[in-house]
Amino acid sequence: MSPATTDTTRERIIDAAEECFARFGVAKTTVEDIAVAAKLSRATVYRSVTGGRDELILAVVLRDLRRFLDRLAERLRSERSVSEAVVEGTLDAVAYVREQPAAAAFLVPEAAGHMQAAVAKAAEHVLSVCCDYVRPHFEEAQRRRLLRADIEVEGTVEFLFRMITSLIVMDRDRDAAALRRFLRTYVVPVIAGPGAPAAAPAAPAAPRSR
């Protein structure tokens, strides 16, 4: 089998896994379900995806996450300030995770169930991808003194992950306006410092999807 054929088969399997996760739920989907949806044998699935179902969960999450981050990068370029970029980016991420059961499994412990060990290992990949996208914007904002100088991108992204998780798990029925006030009051000062300037930096080009 040529590399091109292998890549095509793998994408077909990932497409099928995404379909099955949406239909059956992440926890209940089996490799057999995915093989049937892809119209392939289980042996072919295992040859193409040696890590089995856990690898497929991560592959689906990372592929869709990169699409989301591409859209988010375009959105953040239009924001008027770093503070608003933090607020609107967090809101977009909360909405994204709520709509994506596979992503929720990696960010919300209650969604992971018996996959907890796989989730803990793979979450580092998710964090790394997010840091790669955020890093150019983060470093530019720090150069322009629009973010605190004593924070770094990995810790900041992890902090936002934890905020996104808590906003999903502890849903207090805030409307969008109330949630924005909460983020501006409690989250923005941690990242941008008190009295963050209104001007936003010119955003660098986002990294290309890998």
Mean pLDDT: 80
β-strand number:
0
SSE-based structural type: mainly alpha
H and E order: HHHHHHHHHH
Percentage of residues in DSSP E strands: under 5%
Number of discrete helical segments? 10
The best one-word shape is elongated
Radius of gyration, in Å, reads 19 Å
The unreliable regions are 197-206
Helical percentage? over 70%
What assembly state would you assign to the polypeptide chains in this entry? single chain
N- to C-terminal distance: 23 Å
Largest sheet: none
How do the strands and helices of this protein lay out in sequence?
Elements: H1 3-24, H2 31-38, H3 42-48, H4 52-77, H5 82-99, H6 101-107, H7 109-112, H8 116-143, H9 153-169, H10 176-192
Helix pairs in contact: 1-2, 1-4, 4-5, 4-8, 5-6, 5-9, 5-10, 8-9
Quick gist of this model?
With 210 residues, the chain is an all-alpha fold. It contains 10 helices and no strands.
Describe the structure.
- The chain is mainly alpha-helical and 210 residues long.
- It is 73% helix and 0% strand.
- The protein has ten helices and no strands.
- It is elongated, with a radius of gyration of 19 Å.
- It starts with a helix and ends in an 18-residue tail after the last helix.
